[in-house]
Amino acid sequence: MKFIPKEVIKIINKYHVKKSKLLAVLTDIQAKYNWLPPDAIKLVSEKLCVPLIDVYGVASFYHAFSLTPRGKHIVTVCSGTACHVRGAPIILDRVQDQLGISPGCTTKDDQFTLETVNCLGACALAPIVVVDGHYHGQSTTQKIDLVLTKYKKKKKRKPTKKSRKKK
Amino acid sequence: MIKLEIDKKEIMAKKGETVLEVAQRHGIYIPTLCYQKDLVPYGGCRLCIVEVKGWSIPVASCTLPVEDGMVVKTDTPRLKKLRRFSLQLILSEHPHACLICDKEEECAKYQECIEKSAVTFGCKFCARNGDCELQELVEKLGIKEIPFEFSYRNLEIEKFDPFFERDYNLCILCGRCVRMCQEVRGAGILDFQHRGPETLVGTAYNLSHLEIGCQFCGACVDVCPTGALRDRYSKWLGLPERYVKTTCALCNIGCSIKINVRANTVVSSTPDNNQICVRGRFGIAPLVHHPKRIISPMLRKGERLVEVEWEEAFDFVCTKLNEYRAKTGILFSPQLTIEAINSVYGLADHLQCEKLATTSALETNLKPLDLKGFRGDLVFVIVNTDMISDFSPLLLKLRSQQKIKPAFIVIDAVDSKLTQIVDLWLRPELGKEVDVLKLLFAQKKMKNTTAVSTQDIKLGKDLLKKKNIYLLYNPYNIKNITVPKYVKKIPLTAKINALKIIDMGVDSSTMDLLQDKNIDCLYLLGTAPKLNRKYKTIIVQDCFPPQVRFDLFLPTATFAEVNGSVVNIEGKIKRIRKAIEPLGKSKSDDWIIAQISKRLNHNTKNRKPKKRKTIISAIAKNRKVGEKYPIHLIVRENSYSFRGHRLSDLMKGFERLRGDGYVRVNKRTAKKLRVKDGAEIKIIGRTLNLVMPARITEDVPENSVLVYYHPSMGAVNSQPVRVECVH
Prior knowledge:
The complex is a heterodimer.
Chain A: H1 5-14, H2 22-33, H3 38-48, H4 52-61, E1 73-78, H5 81-85, H6 88-99, E2 112-117, E3 129-131, E4 134-136, H7 141-166
Parallel strand pairs in A: 1-2
Antiparallel strand pairs in A: 1-3, 3-4
Helix pairs in contact in A: 1-3, 2-3, 3-4, 6-7
Chain B: E1 2-6, E2 9-13, H1 19-25, E3 49-52, E4 59-60, E5 71-73, H2 77-91, H3 104-110, H4 133-141, E6 164-166, H5 176-184, E7 191-193, E8 200-202, H6 209-212, H7 219-223, E9 229-231, E10 242-247, E11 256-262, E12 265-271, H8 278-288, E13 298-301, E14 304-307, H9 310-324, E15 328-332, H10 338-351, E16 356-358, E17 378-383, H11 387-399, E18 407-411, H12 417-421, E19 424-426, H13 433-441, H14 454-464, E20 468-473, E21 488-491, H15 498-504, H16 510-515, E22 521-525, E23 537-542, E24 552-555, E25 564-567, E26 573-576, H17 589-599, E27 631-636, E28 641-642, E29 645-646, H18 647-650, H19 652-657, E30 663-666, H20 667-673, E31 680-684, E32 689-697, E33 704-708, E34 719-725
Parallel strand pairs in B: 1-5, 15-16, 15-22, 17-18, 17-20, 18-19, 20-21, 22-23, 23-24, 27-33, 30-32
Antiparallel strand pairs in B: 1-2, 3-4, 3-5, 6-9, 7-8, 10-11, 11-12, 13-14, 13-24, 25-26, 27-34, 28-29, 30-33, 31-32, 31-34
């Protein structure tokens, strides 16, 4: 998604241009673009009168913020102890093969970002994979294939829907 | 008052103090690493832990406020063990091969190293070896081994910035530099990034300090306990043997500094429990030992310059001065000591010379600045003055004047580091600064023709309401300021001793002196202006070779090599102490002039020099930009100079930071004129013709160019000009 200054200013105004609302502003920008573009960070620093380094420090501190572009769908594979024992490495391998990327990377078409997490606290569902906030517990390689193809298809369907409407 | 017991000693303390502060005041040693006086306690290193009676676990004393009846123990076996553990953890991320080496003592003597630890891991190859707080602590806590795996960050050493280098492999994340940069300097350049084991100190997006707008005040370097931040110039000069408390004479603030000396070499200059700027921190040592300095008298014989003895030089001076007498013109730099200025006036009186001038920007209503006189709610309106570049220690003092943070409003067409941190920046059209002031203080509605939005003016008016308003401006950069009486005007000039010179008076301005046709002999003390015509004799008394053709050069010592005093912006007389003996054959200014006076049979003792009437030449008319001269030339006072020499000509670091030898061109204007960055351009005005390399920026407004005044430019003032490429 392209960075548009007006949108960021809208977010800043939503929080009444207050310094104390820095975290909320960044969260909204992150939700909008799935990452924090450098220009957006600079704009926030200028508008809120906070030194650039302070904004950058906050953005780099929290795991919820990303300073590199991320895909439309975020695939999180849990590699905690319970998941590990129940075969998380195999699942991770499968996802890597399917998407063609290693953890922390984004596919070339900006659709998927693969991440690993140390524990999601849902060990009863191990091994667990989260796609866009939806939990897929007790997953197997077959299940993962199905889930990923579903998301891949979603991407293809969207433009057809729009084109139908136009017709 | 609060009564408490530390190590079985009964101690009285004030409310709000911390246990560490009280203990340190009473000479009780508690090891610290992240604690730094003047900074808000951080409690990061956990070395200052103490045991309090009744508390189950030890607590960090730097963040522990004193309480009545507290019983504190600072040195128990349990604490020692814990401290050792903390330091071992810290050292597991800091190269420590030499720190725990059992052959350390022999190593210093014979430079032997059986362990052959890698260069990057050894203390012997660190610039701070011997001056390192970690070394001290390891010795005091008696650490012999580190039971953890050593993790080396393997980062590249950052050497691309001027003045100091950064090796974050040595950083222990104590956060002193970060707190210094944010709390004390208010600059916000450094901060922690990322978290957990990846935590690092650095700038946003790891940009260089130059790009990010660092002032290079060096405060972070001075508080670093390790070798992570180090001064580039003094890196391999060795540890200083002694220091001399003196005053920095590079600008009008006259900050107290310490000059660190090792065997008649100035190693570095550091602040003396205060804040200083880049000039005082990094400019003095390279200036004193500059390779271009001339340290013996030079006489022109025929076409050649010959090194001569002082006697021969004095003979030459005396015959010439006796010959020309009143036909001598004396032009002196304000950056001399008061004693030297007095003797210059004495000499001028003896010669009956009525052509005495200085290169300082003169303003007759200059008054001492009373820092303690500020009362109530304060607003400072700053016009056309870059307080951060020129007067940053003063700005910090103004900020901390009152408990309530004063408001700052800047009126300036030129962007600077200052405009980023103030409450309100009004950017008018060029030359309309005075109009903005009128609008701000107007009671009735006025027509706004200044390009500043009415909304901003309203914001400014709101800030000014019911407050004590002070107007800060540099008389060199803005003329004809008129404000209501309740606004106190504070003119700031960059050159030291300005108050002294105003008091003594001068005969004419520099330009008038150089246009005077009756002068045959020119005596230049620490300044080399552009000369319009030929003189029979030119005598130069300076540290560095001037750009003019001279007949005799008398080498003088810099302010680090003489005793004397200077008057600063507050009207205080500040002592200048001799840190090292004058280099080579160079001598102090007052000694040279005293010797000349002696040979001219003039008794300098007990005679007060005559006061002179200052005549300031008429201000040039504010002309408008026309077809022939479409571009505005802005001229600003250069506060980065020493005796008429630009610091940026002498030192590479200042050239990169300031680039005073460049003319600043607006980006869009440069594109229109097809000027390239670094290319030489010609600036042609009604009365001027300059050739300078260009630096393209967005700081200056469109259709304008900016230069920092230097005597070698000749008569230059703000006026419409035409810009042409040289090629």
